[in-house]
Amino acid sequence: MAVSRSDSDGDRQRSGIEVRLEKLRRVFAGVVALDELSLTLAPGELVALLGPSGCGKTTALRLVAGLDDVTSGRVLFGGAEVTHLGANRRDVGMVFQAYSLFPHMTAMQNVAFGLSLHKVGAADRKRRAGEMLELVGLSPHAHKYAHQLSGGQQQRVALARALAIQPTVLLLDEPLSALDAKVRSRLRDEIRRVQLEVGITTLFVTHDQEEALAIADRVGVMNKGRLEQLGPPTTIYSRPATAFVAEFVGLTNRLHGEVKAGQVEVRGVRLPLVEPNTSDGPAIALIRPEAVTLASDGDAVGPLTGTVIAVSFLGATSRVSVDLGDQMVLAQMSTADASAHPAGTRVRLTLRPDPVLIARDEKASAEA
Amino acid sequence: MIGARRLKLGVFRLAVFLVMGAFFLVPIGAMFEFSTRGNDLTAPRTLDAWKAIIQVPDLVQAITASLELATITSVAMLVLLVPTMVWVRLRLPALNRIVEFICLLPLTVPAIALVVGMVPLYRWIKINVSDSILMLAFAYLVLVLPYTYRTLDAGLASIDLKTLTEAARSLGAGWGTVILRVVVPNISTAILNACLLSVALVLGEFTFANLLFYENLQVAILYESFVSAGTSIAVAVASLLFAFVVLMILSFVGRPRERVARAEEA
After folding, report:
1. Which residue of B has its CA nearest to A104?
2. Were A318 and a residue from A20, A334, A338, B160 both cysteine, which residue would form a disulfide, CB within 3.0 to 4.6 Å?
3. Which chain A residues contact residue B264 at CB under 8 A?
4. Is residue B34 a part of any domain in this protein?
């Protein structure tokens, strides 16, 4: 049974529906690609699944799309189970990583293709396809073929095609990864604009943290088939739940230290821990570059002093690389502040006393 | 410098074109000349041998049978190979090598050996199913497999089959729609080439038909040559011209994308 369509398709789409994944598991030839993923997308919400290659994010998306079979678990759209429905009966719109426009059709025909499968009459088909192309700003290119469109335009047509059928859920499988940086950034904003305008529940898969943090209502960071953390982008960045999240999202300094009585001592500085119950022993403190501040001090000596070896200009901010003698530390600050520490300057480092996450130094632990 | 090189290249191309043209056309011209000779050396040119083609019932029947066989073989080949190859590529890639091996196998077996192997089967078919010459289509399907498989394989390799298929599926297309509306239009050139190969092979086939006691075009030409050499040569020339015309038609049917899309848009 296909997911039912009500007469008020437009209304339903604008309010979006809840999408629930319950303990989704997928095993390929004994290898667990997805390990009991549970996730609920609120109506109209955009959730980004972020993670390195092979973490299971695309597998999760394909299971939601019905392009792959689950080993166990359930997928529910608006409370109705669709776990075993074929991809063609699941009522999802999908944009792929690879360019997926049908080469023998124009942009207009591509968008109208799904409508013809849903038995929409010729006149309505043409009107709706035109509206969708207008939504993505490609009306002037309606009669061009895929090979006559740029990569960004092709992905916008693919988005229009996916939305034209008024799907229950929109699935985006790294749709920007084949594009250059400028187009990627522009199209990312456009996808978000269209998603908000249509109000469709959307699952977005990417390995690009900047993309995920910029576009999503919530970000799910995945590792080895499991969801490590799910939360708003600001939480994911500023309060990572695990060492993996801290290291995967944003830049992180790894400073050797020692956990003692609920605190970690790093180069003579004691910092609070995110998890104060951590057992004592050697550890690596994970500290964001923006938690490191610098002060010029020509005669500075000590464990938290070093020499600036490079300043990377990033626009409003700059990243300063400091050599402590036995390791490098990154500090991020406003470009104006960074200009006070050109390469070669001796500096003293201060670590902001935020609660820090630690990663266990396996080698150090073994030696201890 | 560049102009001189271009001129040399042009002259070389023209020379190759003329030599190859002569290679193909001189024998056909000689056959045509022979088929239009009168009864003796001094007799004027005549088209009697050509006119006789449609007056020999066995010949007409054989021509019709061969055309039917070419059509049936081409259609059966497409119906068998396209969905199989798509399915194997998408769902059972591990079987790809095995399917390829099976399809290419007839190429390594001499036609005579294939026929000897098929004799008992066809004896059974003639007794229990039908003694129609159209039953030869089964044998011809095996005969054309290696050539058509290679052509279709190249066509499928030239498109991103997985992504296009999944895109169509996610838009609501069933497997039939995926194959007919997405895969076939995108490998149309390969399909036309495969059809051309099977038509050419079937129209020129002699060994299977003769040894399995069927009378197709080539067998009929041989028999006719015992009665009238002129008419048999005229039929041979006509079949070559027919193959050429089919080739031209198929080339034009392989339309550019713009025209296909305009037709679909209408």
Report:
1. B257
2. A338
3. 104-105, 109
4. no
Give the CATH number, domain containing residue B101. 1.10.3720.10
B186 chain-A contacts, CB cut-off 8 A: 102-104
| CB within 8 Å: A117 and B177 | yes
The total domain count for chain B is 1
Side-chain-side CA neighbours of A74 within 13 Å: the count stands at 10
Q: Which of B95, B86, B122, B105 is nearest to B212 (CA)?
A: B122
B264–A96 C-beta distance less than 8 A: no
ipTM over 0.85: no
Domain that holds residue B178: 55-265
Q: What is the value of pTM for the model shown?
A: 0.79
pLDDT tens digits, one per residue of B7-21: 999 999 999 999 999
Q: How close is the nearest chain A Cα to the Cα of B181, in Å?
A: 10
Tell me: the pLDDT tens digits for A233-259?
999 988 888 889 988 988 889 888 889
CA dist B73 and B188 (Å) reads 18
Measuring CA to CA, how many Å separate B172 from each of A75, A178, B37, B165?
Answer: 18, 25, 64, 11
Q: Which of B159, B163, B261 sits opposite A109 (nearest CB)?
A: B261
What is the C-alpha R_g of chain A?
Answer: 25
Residue B13 counted as domain residue: no
Q: Which residues of B touch A141 (CB under 8 A)?
A: none
The answer to whether position B30 is within a domain reads no
